[in-house]
What does this fold into?
Amino acid sequence: MNDDELKGMRRILFVCLGNICRSPAAEGIMRDIVDASDAEGFTIDSAGTGRYHIGQLPDHRMRVHARRRGIELEHRCRQVSTSDFNDFDIIIGMDANNIADLHAIAPSPDDERKIVAMSDFFNKSTRFDHVPDPYYEGAEGFELVLDLLQEGCQNLFDAVTRK
Ligand code: 4NP
It folds into this structure.
């Protein structure tokens, strides 16, 4: 999606594999950015391509690391579905597997155009082309995810609210 297409897109869905680490963190960070602004009309949610953790709160480690940055994560895990392509303007995958899985369930080519990579919103100087899965990592993995998501969500917010 180019800069013109991104303008005004306010129904945003973040997607990862488990929907307990990266995408609920992205959802919480984006909500925090929106709440701190005077922007209106946003719908922000997250979902997973997998179904391992449906109904659960985010991973305890991610909740602790996010809380240290003033962000409470209270999303309940759900699986992404084809109806999400109706309900959201942009569907943001955290890594190449998430993006491939989203393309596989998109109902139409137009819907596939809604799928974008979180890394598209990283600063140009970034070393990262995806948000690394922290599930089997230590504390640094969770901190890295939060750093990348805070940078990416701010750039995403700037892109969709640009006049
Ligand atoms: P997420 O991390 O995709 O960032 O939520 C994961 C969480 C759980 C699993 C994999 C990744 N899992 O295999 O249970």
